[in-house]
Write a structure and sequence with these properties.
single chain, 329 residues, mainly alpha, A middle domain of Talin 1, two-stranded antiparallel ribbon, two-stranded antiparallel sheet, 14 helices, calcium channel activity, NaCa_Exmemb, calcium, potassium:sodium antiporter activity, K/Na/Ca-exchanger, membrane
Length: 329
Amino acid sequence: MNILFLIGGLILILLGANGLTDGSASIAKRLRIPPIVIGLTIVAFGTSAPELTVSVASALKGSADIAIGNVVGSNIFNTLMIVGCTSLFAPIVITRNTLRKEIPLCILSSVALLVCANDVFLDKASENILNRVDGLLLLCFFAIFMGYTFAIARTPSTPPTGDSQQFAHPTEEDEIKLLPWWKSSLYILGGLAALIYGGQLFVNGATGIARNLGVSESIIGLTLVAGGTSLPELATSIVAALKKNPEIAIGNVIGSNLLNIFFVLGCSASITPLHLNEITNFDLFTLVGSGILLWFFGLFFARRTITRIEGSIMVLCYVAYTVVLIYNA
């Protein structure tokens, strides 16, 4: 039964990702909204819904390691595995604005979590806890992020000087199908529903298999649950890149990472304090390092483009991280 959940969930995730990308890209084109804004909001909210559901439910059930591990593991998976795999299908072009503002903001969110989760080191406390104050602080950061995103939406979508050659190709604009309003809305709602339900099926199947094998909650949260809840981001980013919408692909990853830390963990910690038992600084520093690696690859080498070689390096980094986790389990 668990294997059927895995397969069924994966099919729903792939179908949902395709519908969500088509619907959101069509609305972005019709309203002349920058695609990066769509990626940071509609797509990111939809693909982060599984993380929100799993983390809040885990927090209420007292499984803090799954709640926190889900977010930390998902963000590492998003940055290294999703960006890496997506660039293998089609190189990802990053705008100057994303490189200078959104990615650094993503790194800042990881640093904020690292600071909030180090009570033992910073305050000489008996244990590391994400308490309600930390949760409310993260939600305040989330409000600032949303304000910034809406500010982007009010600015003209014309690319800055120097980016025009990369983003002003008519052929890329033609790749976006202009759908009727009702069909775009149906694609988005149906895609979100398929992503959420498919993610839940996948997580239930993966968790059931893992627990039957006697794997700890922290490993489940950091790997299987994180990978399962990040499948919507993976599918959406790959589909967006193949459809010549690189800004939706990268915006989806960055937006999901920010939402996972600021909103998902903020809500979870505000509901009930989260005790960090087996989630260590190794995991948190890996999270910070993955964001820095993305920024580094985007800033140097191939002129704001994540190439297949860089994507391969990111995938290998994630594989190495997973091997270390399993080895130390």
